[in-house]
Design brief:
Blueprint: H1 2-9, H2 12-32, E1 42-51, H3 57-72, E2 78-86, E3 89-96, H4 103-118, E4 130-135, E5 142-147, H5 152-166, E6 172-178, E7 183-189, H6 191-197, H7 201-211, E8 213-221, E9 226-233, H8 238-242, E10 245-248, E11 254-256, H9 257-260, E12 261-267, E13 273-276, E14 279-288, H10 294-308, E15 317-321, H11 325-351, H12 356-379, H13 386-395, H14 401-415, H15 420-430, H16 432-446, H17 454-460, H18 462-485, H19 496-514, H20 516-537, E16 550-556, H21 563-581, E17 586-593, E18 609-616, H22 626-637, E19 645-650, E20 661-666, H23 669-683, E21 689-694, E22 698-707, H24 709-715, H25 719-730, E23 733-740, E24 743-751, H26 759-764, E25 766-768, E26 774-776, E27 781-789, E28 791-795, E29 798-807, H27 814-827, H28 830-833, E30 838-841, H29 844-874, H30 879-884, H31 886-901, H32 907-938, H33 945-954, H34 956-976, H35 985-1022
Parallel strand pairs: 7-24
Antiparallel strand pairs: 1-3, 1-4, 2-3, 2-28, 5-14, 5-15, 6-14, 7-12, 8-9, 10-11, 13-14, 13-17, 16-18, 16-19, 17-18, 20-29, 20-30, 21-29, 22-27, 23-24, 25-26, 28-29
Helix pairs in contact: 1-15, 1-18, 2-12, 2-18, 3-4, 11-12, 11-13, 11-34, 12-14, 12-18, 13-18, 14-15, 14-18, 14-34, 15-18, 16-18, 16-29, 16-32, 19-20, 19-33, 19-35, 20-31, 20-35, 21-22, 29-32, 31-32, 31-35, 32-33, 32-34, 32-35, 33-35, 34-35
Length: about 1000
């Protein structure tokens, strides 16, 4: 190592060229890297969605969900299958095993299984199931709200035009639409007229299909030309459908569709209706292309919106809402601002200890290292996203540590009489081993994150890569560039104030070493006391609530409320939100009637559901935090009446799967309901449990139709004729998808208004047999009416009921409330009383347990790797334990710091503690190396108290400087984090507090522990 240091130390021009190249290449790499909101990760979930319009939950389960689940059972590497069958929709969520070797093959097998399941779907299920992989790349980068007090057709045509034009905007990928209704042609028939003229439903369907013919009839050749013959018998207007001949009994004796009904061109029934700031809207969810840059794509879309704004139809508004690129912009701005402030703070700190030259070049190591790190990140195919930028922010305080230790050693060499290049070479070489070891231990501390499973592991996988690249850049700067930059300084003189501080420290540490057992006991006792206090007061939350710039309100009206009623009541809630939040803090409000799916939830739609999203001003522009706003809105909503559910949900970017309270009940239906009632009775007595609900809700009454096969055979009626008649009478039957007005749309055959959708209709329905005779339906079937359910939920093929709830996190934690639920289950003997019911507590608790286990394994691995690195450095089995002694003490200090700040322990704080373990040993390695060199130089087996105090004093300055500069580099992030950057505060705070507390341990306890180790070694030698 000395030869390499000397080579670069004597070639200042080369080093300056390397420095400028590093800064230039780093700038180019930073501009070349793609910017994203989140790294694209696989969520390990595949969702199969299949619409089945007009079918009830039980029919959807039987006709769609069960065939899909049956085929999926044959696919390997599936961990769990969840399904929800609701009115008109089946959603099957497939959770893949965590150790899949070939995920593409598994997804391909799932697609094949779904394709196989479609073979057993009923003829009325004309749509194809969609198979979607859950990845963060599927998230929209922004929303375009097209709204106004204009006819729906105007909004629809505007959106069609915008969608076409956005396809040519650079970076724009897939666009999905919310509140966009397809056109539908309804053939409304009168059953009495059909009966009188002897027309069956399949007669009309066949006639319409015959009328839609567009085909080539060949070509006619002549001597001079050739003409194509085209047979055309399509539809251009609804009137064309009315003129279609259904039956002919001779010339002039024709029955047309218009003779038995009417044809109307209209929109399909609402599934999801959107509104923006009170007006009807269509929301365009814009996704970027996989290789596109989020910031550039968002800017391009905004530029397009600005250009097209003046060309919109009168009364139509086009607004950019929920631009997620703001998170990346905020993090980039935070990184730049904090790097600049960090350099300034580090320079000021160094000026207290060193001269101007050393302070300048050591502080300049920060931007040089960042530049090299950007170049490495670009080569490693990393993007600029919230996770990589968080890792860079984390490293701001550590990047100059190696340079400080090296610069201080060079400064020490000058104080000892060496000058110029020799001082640089000798000083840099003297601390090479401990500096490189410290770098390796920090890298190893983060390395176990690479092997974490689950969503957390995938999400955080970039952190150890970025840490390794930045620390590698730091070692290049401090060992190859810094010695050359400091090779021309004059002889240094110690600072007088520090000399006085050093003398006081020497006296203090000498007394502690002489009374080492008392000092060690006091350290341990104080740390245990602090640990007990901190652990009891700092709760654990996997992803704690932070100040967000939007929140949502989930609404449920009484069963049977239509879209119009739901929309009116949702508007009341919108107005209440506007009044409570106020214009100064509110950007806008949008509503989606027909569902209230949040985050990873998907699928179910109901006319009586609604989801309202309130968009707030950015945190820095608001008069109060979103947490306070949400509390005020929640209190105001409590006054509302006539709702089955009103629930406020804070919008966070955390990948939490499930709710704080989530209890799955699998088993016989009646027993499940009894267990449900017992659990609800208990949870309703717990004030800390909020928004209590279950997946079981009574649905529309179900009329079971039992076919009398013998009667049908005797009267010449088949089952298809019966089912067609029932479907047409109630929800209508999709005949086919045919083209009209150059648009492919479904043709629906149904009864005219007033003749459908009642039980009396079903009882009085008649069916024509093969001979054209009218047969009453009640002669062919038996009708049985029973209560229905709104949704049928299944887990791995078994019917399941789930109890959900949120918690007041200021009062309790996920673990505490689930412990209470577990005790209640045991005390109430629910498992003994209902042995057929399987009770499972899952949701956030299960994810939290898995994450804690992963972090535990990572932490143990981290300690083992650090120990092995220290073993190689010191060649001793016991000395690494002394160095690592600082880790538990530092963690206690971090917990105390989090307690003071009122921050919960979370997955982000846990990652900070992993890094803390590596950072804490850095100063201890420097201290231990100094003591070992002193002992080896003395030629003795052990050092006396005076020698230990002197050796510890020689390392006082680098230990203090690195600790103060690390904290100074992190402080701007802690103080300046707001809104979208606030989620990183637990990690940064953990590191900052841990380093401060660890410094006290390194300077105080480590010399004491070194002396105690020598006592033990003497005792062993005597025996």
């Amino acid at each position: 190592m000395r030869a390499i240091i000397e080579f670069f130390a004597r070639r200042g021009l080369l080093v300056n060229l390397l420095m400028l190249t590093s800064l230039g290449v780093g700038l180019i790499a930073a501009r070349a890297m793609n910017a994203e909101t989140m790294p694209e990760i696989d969520m390990g979930i595949v969702t199969v969605s299949m619409p089945y319009p007009g079918a009830g939950p039980e029919d959807v389960e039987l006709a769609i969900t069960e065939p899909i689940e049956t085929q999926l059972e044959r696919v390997a590497d599936i961990e769990r299958i969840d399904s929800t069958s609701s009115e008109g929709m089946s959603v099957v969520s497939i959770r893949l095993a965590g150790d899949i070797e070939d995920k593409e093959q598994v997804v391909s097998d799932i697609q094949k299984a779904v394709d196989q399941a479609t073979l057993s779907f009923p003829d009325q299920a004309r749509d194809r199931p969609s198979v979607d992989e859950g990845t963060t790349g599927e998230m929209s980068i922004l929303e375009l709200h097209v709204s106004g007090q204009v006819p729906e057709e105007v909004l629809r045509s505007t959106v069609d035009r915008l969608e076409d034009e956005l396809g040519s905007v650079p970076g724009v990928g897939r666009i999905s639409k919310v509140g966009y209704r397809e056109r539908e042609l309804s053939v409304l028939v009168d059953p009495a007229l059909m009966l009188r003229r002897g027309i069956r439903y399949d007669d009309i369907a066949a006639a319409i299909r015959r009328g839609e013919v567009r085909t080539s009839g060949g070509s006619i050749e002549s001597f001079v030309t050739e003409r194509q013959v085209l047979t055309v018998a399509g539809f251009d207007h609804p009137e064309d459908v009315e003129r279609v001949i259904v039956k002919s009994k001779g010339v002039g004796n024709l029955v047309r569709i218009g003779d038995v009904g009417e044809v109307h061109l209209d929109f399909a029934e609402w599934r999801t209706q959107a509104r923006s700031n009170g007006d009807l809207a269509i929301i365009m969810m814009v996704r970027k292309q996989r290789s596109a840059d989020t910031l550039e794509t968002a800017d391009a879309v905004r530029h397009y919106v600005g250009e097209v704004a003046d060309e919109l139809p009168a009364g139509v508004r086009l607004e950019v809402i929920n631009d997620t690129s703001r998170f990346t912009r905020d993090m980039l701005a935070t990184l730049v601002d904090n790097a600049l402030m960090g350099v300034g703070l580090v320079f000021l700190v160094l000026m207290f200890f060193f001269d101007l030259r050393i302070s300048f070049w050591v502080a300049l190591g920060l931007p040089i290292s960042i530049g090299l790190a950007f170049a490495g990140m670009h080569l490693a195919d990393q993007s600029l996203n919230l996770i990589t930028l968080m890792a860079l922010l984390l490293m701001l305080g550590m990047l100059v540590d190696d340079a400080i230790v090296t610069g201080e050693s060079i400064y020490q060499s000058r104080e000892d009489g060496l000058e110029g290049v020799e001082a640089s070479i000798e000083g840099a070489h003297a601390v090479s081993a401990p500096v490189i070891t410290s770098l390796v231990t920090t890298m190893l501390a983060f390395a176990p994150i690479l092997f974490m499973n689950g969503i957390e592991g995938k999400l955080l996988a970039s952190i150890p890569i970025v840490v390794g690249l930045t620390l590698g850049a730091s070692i290049i700067e401090c060992k190859l560039m810094l010695p050359a930059h400091l090779a021309h300084g004059s002889r240094a003189r110690p600072r007088q104030w520090f000399s006085r501080l050093r003398r006081r420290y020497d006296v203090l540490i000498l007394g502690m070493v002489r009374r080492r057992y008392l000092a060690a006991s006091l350290f341990v006792a104080a740390t245990i006391g602090l640990a007990v206090m901190a652990v009891s007061r700092v709760p654990f939350n996997l992803f704690p609530t932070t100040d967000a710039d939007m929140f949502m309100v989930k609404l449920e009206l009484p069963r049977g409320s239509g879209f119009e009623r739901s929309s009116l009541r949702a508007r009341e809630v919108e107005e209440l939100i506007e009044q409570t939040v106020g214009e100064a803090d509110l950007l806008g409000v949008s509503t989606q009637v027909g569902h209230h799916n949040v985050g990873l939830e998907s699928g179910a739609t109901r006319a009586e559901w609604a989801l309202i999203t309130a968009y707030l001003q950015p945190a820095g522009a608001r008069s109060r935090s979103s947490l306070l706003i949400v509390d005020e809105v929640d209190a105001a909503l409590d006054e509302l009446e006539g709702f089955e559910l009103v629930e406020v949900v804070s919008k966070e970017s955390s990948p939490t799967q499930g709710r704080p309270v989530e209890i799955e009940l699998t088993g016989p239906s009646q027993e499940r309901l009894q267990v449900r009632e017992a659990l609800l009775g208990f949870l309703e007595t717990r004030p800390e449990v909020l928004n209590l609900e279950t997946s079981y809700e009574p649905g529309k009454p179900v009329v079971s139709v039992h076919l009398r096969e013998a009667a049908m055979a005797a009267r010449g009626v088949n089952a298809d004729a019966v089912t067609q008649a029932i479907r047409v009478a109630f929800d209508g039957m999709i005949i086919d998808e045919l083209r009209l007005h150059d648009e492919l749309m479904p043709f629906r055959l149904q009864f005219v208004d007033g003749a459908a959708s009642s039980l009396d209709t079903l009882k009085n329905l008649t069916v024509l047999n093969n001979s054209g005779d009218a047969i009453p339906l009640d002669a062919l079937v038996e009708l049985e009416e029973a209560p229905g359910v709104a949704e049928v939920e299944r887990v791995d093929g078994e019917a399941t009921l789930t109890v959900y709830g949120d918690i007041d996190r200021t009062v309790t934690t996920v673990a505490e409330i689930n412990d209470a639920i577990g005790r209640f289950i045991v005390d109430a003997k629910l498992r003994e009383t209902f042995p057929a019911v399987h009770i499972r507590q899952g949701g956030e608790l299960a994810q939290q347990g898995a994450a804690v286990a992963e972090l535990g394994i990572a932490f143990v691995s981290c300690l083992a790797l650090i120990y092995m690195a220290l073993l190689l450095l010191f060649g001793s089995l016991l000395q690494p334990f002394l160095v690592m002694l600082v880790i538990p003490f530092g963690i206690v200090g971090a917990l105390v710091g989090l307690m003071i700040q009122g921050i919960d322990v979370s997955i982000i704080a846990g990652v900070g503690m992993l890094g803390l373990a590596g950072v804490l040993v850095n100063d201890s390695v420097v201290m231990m190396s100094a003591l070992n060199r002193l002992r080896e130089g003395s030629g003795r087996l052990s050092l006396g108290p005076e020698a230990i105090a002197a050796g510890a004093g020689s390392r006082l300055r680098p230990v203090v400087i690195t600790s103060v500069t690390t904290t100074a580099g992190l402080f701007p992030t802690i103080a300046g984090a707001t809104g979208s950057t606030q989620f990183i505060v637990p990690m940064i705070s953990t590191l900052a507090w841990g380093v401060l507390f660890g410094t006290v341990v390194t300077l105080g306890l480590l010399p004491v522990a070194y002396a105690i180790l020598q006592d033990l070694q003497k005792l062993v030698r005597r025996r």
